[in-house]
Design a protein that fits this description.
The protein is 32% helix and 33% strand. It contains 7 helices and 8 strands; from the N terminus they run βαβαββββαββαααα. Residues 72, 74-75, 77, 135, 139, 141 line the site of zinc ion.
């Protein structure tokens, strides 16, 4: 991973220590996200805080900011999409504990002492993306979906018309 952020974390140890990290997360290192992007250039700016809340619940909070180039699902051209994902993860042991979390937390299941950090952050970015990426209205592609349909209609000639013309030509 890029500078400023650890590759692996021990979430509970960091929460007890109240550690903070800031750094860059290169898009090129995120394989699952990369498969959705038109370009893997650039990096996210990441700010993280490990700690425990008033109830003693260990958490990982922070923000992931940057830009990605998604493919518009209408015209298949790249479109810049700003990312500003809030991280509010509560560390839990299992699904049962996760179900009891207050609504403002998402669960981070900590099954092993140390975990890779990048996949955790990648999940948060993936959750923040639109289900279907589309250029917004003023973009020309918003009207493009009509054009190909008209062309297709022109190409599709009535077979009976073809037959009639052949007959006429042969007379
Ligand atoms: Zn488009």
């Amino acid at each position: 991973m890029s500078s400023g952020l650890p590759d692996r974390i021990e979430p509970l140890v960091l929460a007890l220590a109240g550690r903070r990290f800031s750094g860059e997360l290169a898009l090129a290192t995120l394989g699952r996200l990369g498969s959705l992007l038109a370009s893997q250039d650039g990096a996210f700016r990441v700010d993280l805080e490990f700690g425990r809340d008033e109830s003693g619940q260990p958490y990982l909070a922070g923000r992931i900011r940057g830009e990605v180039e998604l493919l518009c699902q209408r015209c298949l051209e790249p479109m810049v999409h700003p990312v500003d994902a809030e991280v509010r993860l509560a560390m839990v042991q299992d699904d049962e504990e996760a179900a009891r979390l207050p609504a403002h937390y998402e669960p981070l299941i900590v099954a092993t002492e140390s975990m890779e950090l990048a996949p955790i952050l990648e999940d948060e970015v993936l959750l923040s993306l639109p289900i279907v990426a589309l250029h917004s209205e003023p973009h020309p592609c918003a009207t493009e979906d009509r054009a190909p349909r008209e062309k297709a209609v022109v190409k599709r000639e009535n077979p009976f018309a073809v037959l009639a013309r052949l007959k006429r030509d042969n007379q």
